[in-house]
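Folding Problem: From Residues to Backbone Shape
Fields: amino acid sequence; protein C-alpha cells
RECORD BEGINS BELOW THIS LINE
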Amino acid sequence: MKILVTGGAGFIGSHTVVELLNAGFEPVIIDNFSNSNRSALAGLRQILNHDVPFYEADCNDAEALNAIFEKENFRGVIHFAAHKAVGESVAKPLMYYRNNLDSTLLLLETMQRYGVPNLVFSSSCTVYGQPEHLPVTEETPRLPAQSPYGNTKAICEDIIRDTVKAGGPVKSIALRYFNPMGAHPSGLIGELPLGVPGNLVPFITQTAAGIREKLTVHGGDYDTVDGTCIRDYIHVVDLAKAHVQALRLLDSREETSYYDVFNVGTGNGQTVLELIQTFEKVNNIKLNYSIGPRRPGDVEKIYAQVDKVNNVMGWRAEKTLAEGLQDAWRWEQNLQLKNSIVSE
C-alpha cells in the first residue's frame, strides 16, 4: 500500500516512514520544512539505503495536494503536519487555528475526491485537558484544552469524526499520543527543533551538549512526588509502530465508514525530575538545571491507560525510558559531530 505521510520529514513522521517501509508499505513524504529539516531525508536514505519519494509542499496548498494525489495512487494517509508547540500556540492562537484546521479540512476533501479510504490522524493527550482521574482512558471526557494547540487537535478529531459519520467514505483512527521522546537507535534521525526547543528531552540533550547554558524546569510546586509535572514518555520508535498497526486495522475493516480513538503511551507516568535523573544516570552526565516558574498551558499530570490499544490494535510499548534517553543523547552527539565537521 502506498501511504502519504504529511510532515514526513519531522520527528515522528520520519521514524514512521522507517517503520512503514519495514512493514512492507510504500511511504511518500510531503513536507514544507516549516518545522523540520532536509537532513532528515539524508538520515532516512542512510537507514534505508535508498531515497523515499518526497514532495516539498504545504498541506494548505490545494493545487499542490491535488497534483500529488493525481500522480500517486494512495491507499492511506498519516497526517502529522501541524504546528505543535504548546507555548507558541498560547502566544499565537490564530496561526495555530489557521494552519492546523485548514490543512486537515483540505486533506479530507482531497482524500474524498480521489477515493483514498484510510486516515491515521496524529492527535494528542492534550485533548483531555487536566483530567480529573488517572490514568486516562479513551472514555475520559475531553475537558477544555489548556492551550490552542490542544484545542486544534480536539477540533480536528471532531471534523474527522463528523466526516466519517456523514458517510465519507473515509475510515479513520485518531492516535492520542502522550510524550514522544528518543531517536532512531542508529542515531541518524531524531528530534531536531528549530531554534529553542519547546520539548523537554531536546532541551536536556542540548544542555548536556553545551548548546544551552542551563535547563529550566517549569514549575516545582505541583501536587506530585517532587513538585514537577508528570508525563507518560513514549519512545518514538514504539510510537511509529503504532501508526503501522493503525493502518493495518483500518484496512482490515470492511465497513466504508469507521472511526475510533486510541491512547498511545506506556501506561506509566514519570516526573520531569525523574526523567532528568534517569538521563544523568544512563548517560553518566551531570546536567545544569534549576526550578523556574510554571509555564502557561502546562497540565499538572497525565498518563495513559493502554488496555484498548494493546487489545484492539495489538500494539504495546516495548522500549524503556532509559533506552529513549540513551538514543536521544546518541542522536544529539551525532548531530554535534556533523556540525563540527561542517564548520571546520
The mean pLDDT is 95. The two ends are 44 Å apart (CA to CA). The chain is about 40% helix and 15% strand.
